[in-house]
Amino acid sequence: MGDNPYQDDRGNKDRSITKTHGVGQTPLRKGGKAVPVEGDAPFLIGEAMTGGYGKGPDILHECTIAVNAGEIAVIVGPNGAGKSTAMKAVFGMLDVRKGRVLLDGEDITALSPQDRVQKGMGFVPQTNNIFTSMTVEENLEMGAFIRRDDIRSTMEQVYELFPILRDKRRQAAGELSGGQRQQVAVGRALMTKPKVLMLDEPTAGVSPIVMDELFDRIIEVSRTGLPILMVEQNARQALAIADKGYVLVQGANAYTGTGKELLADPDVRKSFLGG
Ligand SMILES: Nc1ncnc2c1ncn2[C@@H]1O[C@H](COP(=O)(O)OP(=O)(O)OP(=O)(O)O)[C@@H](O)[C@H]1O
């Protein structure tokens, strides 16, 4: 375990919360050449990522986010903490100046977003995530653009997960409610048959009831065995369904633990969950 970069985080048998205040103090990585221990490595990890937009300053400071096979990992934190930026970095939309991204053990840091999709990453961005003038079904078909095989069984699975989309399949996606649009966006990502799903604020701008419904759907998707890494504003609700939670502050890891641990932690409660 000595060289395991996740030692403090995952190797800890009591799975206690890792507190990592301050830039450059991440305990998730020791040295630059550590290799994950087989079988204990997350399925997808953005590891000790430092980077920003264009030639601008660093927004992320040795930030690590990851998701294990079959789990839901949630990223929370205050506005502007860099949650979306961290997701973009993992998806290859940001120049990662230090650190790396591993997918199923493979270093994909140098790959374009398109190539990452080919490798099995599904990403649902926070905004502009559907084609509003196209029908629901056309959106799903567009989602399958990288595939050359028969997509009908996948579409059937999406309709089973999101029955409302079957009812509205001939309707323009732009005519749907906010929660339904988000289902289209997630369904579209699922059409590539991804190995991991990344969601940036899937419940943004929806009512609490719709948010609960969306979370139920996300849990269902997760039960199909697909690992899910997501950013959420609704920290309390998201941590309640999370196997793993990351609290980011100013582009760095502030707290890491199971969803349950973070929800129970007095500091996290006070600072990020409204007491
Ligand atoms: N395209 C961009 N170009 C330059 N700076 C950006 C860009 N997008 C975000 N930033 C900056 O990066 C920082 C982190 O923003 P980011 O959107 O990642 O935070 P967040 O935690 O997702 O916030 P929120 O919860 O408000 O969505 C902010 O200071 C923001 O101004």
TrEMBL record:
- Per UniProt, the ranges with Basic and acidic residues bias are 7-17
Per its UniProt record, what CDD domains does this chain match?
ABC_TM1139_LivF_branched
Region Disordered, as annotated, extends over 1-35
Keywords, A to Z, come to: Amino-acid transport, ATP-binding, Nucleotide-binding, Transport
* Keyword flag Nucleotide-binding: yes
* Gene3D superfamilies xref list: P-loop containing nucleotide triphosphate hydrolases
**One MF term in the entry's GO annotations:** ATP hydrolysis activity
Q: Which domain of life is it from?
A: Bacteria
Query: A biological process (GO) annotation for this entry?
Result: L-amino acid transport
One Pfam family of this chain: ABC_tran
All residue ranges annotated as the ABC transporter domain in the record: 44-275
Give the record's family classification: Belongs to the ABC transporter superfamily.
**Protein name listed in UniProt:** Amino acid/amide ABC transporter ATP-binding protein 2, HAAT family
